[in-house]
C-alpha cells in the first residue's frame, strides 16, 4: 500500500497538465482539473492535493486455471479522495487496465460524486485480464483472490466497489461473500450492483442508462430539438449503451446506428432495438443484424445524427476526428470519451457536449440508494428508485447549465469547477491533519 501525497507531487502540481500532449485518460483528467483550478483561483498546494490519489494499492493476483496451471495477473485499487465520505468506484476487468487509467477513473469518480452531491469520494479498481478468455470458475477465483488482497482498504465505510467493464452483479456477489466470510457476518453494504436477492437495488442495473437518457432528452430540448423528431447514434452496445438505445427509442428518438467492439450497424429509418438486442443475445455482437446495413465502427462517430452517445471506452473523440462529427449534441455515456483537444474543436463548432461526470452519473446515484437501503435493511420500490434518480439527474443538469450560462463556460468546465469547488470546501472545513 502506498501513500502518494508526497511521492508524486512533482508531477501533479501547478504543471499537472504539462503532459497533455500525450493522449491518455490520466493526462485528460489532469488537464480538466488544471482548468478548473485556474478558473477557481486555487493555489498550487490544493491543486497537488486534488490531483494526487490519497491511497493506491497494486497487488499480484495469482490464478489457478481449470487445467491446474497457474497464471499471474496484476490488480489495482486507487482511492482518489475521501474527504466527503467513503471512496466509491467500479471494478474493471480488461487486458489494457493499468495504474494510470485507474487513477484517471478514480479522479473522475470524485468529481462525479461531488457534482451529484452524493456523500462519497472517488475510487476505482481493475485487473489486467481479459474475462472472455476465462471460465466462470476462473473468474470467481481471480475475483476472490483480488478481494482478499485489497481487504485492508475496502469496506462499507471505507471503499465500496461496483461493476464496470468486464464485471457484473455476479462479480459483486463474489466480492460480498469473500468480504463477509472474512468478517464473520454478512455485509451487504460492501458492494453495490449486487443481485437483487442479495440486497441489490431495483433499478440499479439500468441506472446509468436511464440517467444518460434523462440528460440526453433534456440536452436535445435545450438545443431546440424535439426528441420525437431527433436521430441518434450510440457507440457501445453493452451495459450502458444497450439500455440507453432502448430508452431513447422508447422516448421516440430514432436510433440509426449502434456499434460494439466487433463492428457497427446502421438503418436510416431507425433500428429495431428490441430485435437487435435479441440478435446480440443470440450471437454476441451487433454484427450481422438482418435489420440493418453494416457500418465501420469508427464511422459511427461521424454519422449525420442529432445526438451522439459515446458509451464504450475513453478517448474515442480526439483532435483527429472531432472536426468530422456531425451530431449537434454529444452525451457521454462512457468515462472520458472526449479528449481536451476534441472538446475545444467541438465547442468552436457549436456542438453541445454533456460531460461524463454529469451524463453517466445515474449508476453512482442508484449505487448510493442501494448502499442506503443495505445499511437500513429497507428496500425501495422500483418506481421510488427511478423517480428519485430522475429528480437528482435533472436537478444537476439545471445546476450545471445555469452555472455554465452565467459564466460563459462549457458544460464540462462548469461541471468540473462545481465538483472541484465542493471537494475543496470539504478539505477547507476538515482542515489539514496534523
Structure, described:
- The chain has 434 residues and is of the alpha/beta class.
- It contains 14 helices and twelve strands.
- It has a seven-stranded mixed β-sheet with strand order 9-8-7-6-10-11-12, sandwiched between helices. A five-stranded mixed β-sheet has the order 1-2-4-3-5.
- Helix 4 links the parallel strand 3 (87-94) and strand 4 (121-128).
- Helix 13 (382-407) crosses helix 14 (411-430).
- It is globular, with a radius of gyration of 21 Å.
- The model is unreliable at 1-21 (pLDDT under 50).
> What number is the mean pLDDT?
92
Main sheet strand line-up: 9-8-7-6-10-11-12
Q: How many beta-strand elements?
A: 12
Helix content: 40-55%
Instruction: Categorize the overall geometry.
Output: globular
**What is the radius of gyration computed over CA atoms, rounded to a whole number of angstroms?**
21 Å
Report the structural category. alpha/beta
Main sheet record: 7 strands, mixed
Low-confidence stretches: 1-21
The sequence of SSEs as H and E is HHHEEEHEHEHHEHEEHEEEHEHHHH
Report the end-to-end length measured between terminal Cα atoms: 21 Å
As a percent range, the share of strand residues is 15-25%
Tally of contiguous helical segments:
14
